[in-house]
């Protein structure tokens, strides 16, 4: 009797996990969070200070067989501060970001861990900079209108809340003075599904 009960529980558990991982699913929701951007400056004369930015928008997830595709669309603000012994430049860039992420998920019963990676295209919609000291307008960051990056991340799903931690490695080179640099960032976001099928 105990073996039969154990077998039944194990069978139901296996079906639940298989259903959660194998059957096709679709989700659509909203997300918001913060980011911490940095420039990979090759010139040791410049100091790069990070400043918090924000992100907010929409995401969708289509999954089956334990894997998923997650396209997103959100507005993000990237803030950087560059200084040397003559002054500082503060730059803020607002863009529409579109990551196309591929990954997998493990877990069941409303708790799961995700991992994913994929390309991101960023379309700048606002670029502003302020200068102080002798730098003035002599050295500025020429942030391009269209930029590409690659995202790596992990996420934790707790029932109807998803927490994501990501690293975004800039691919497009930006010009700062006479040097080339790339913008990279870490982001932490909270997502809630509005539709789950």
TrEMBL record:
Organism: Mucilaginibacter frigoritolerans
Domain Outer membrane protein beta-barrel: 21-173
Protein's name according to its UniProt entry: Outer membrane protein with beta-barrel domain
Classification lineage: Bacteria, Pseudomonadati, Bacteroidota, Sphingobacteriia, Sphingobacteriales
Signal peptide bounds: 1-20
Family matches, as Pfam families: OMP_b-brl_2 (PF13568)
Record keywords, A-Z: Signal
InterPro entries xref list: Beta-barrel_OMP_2
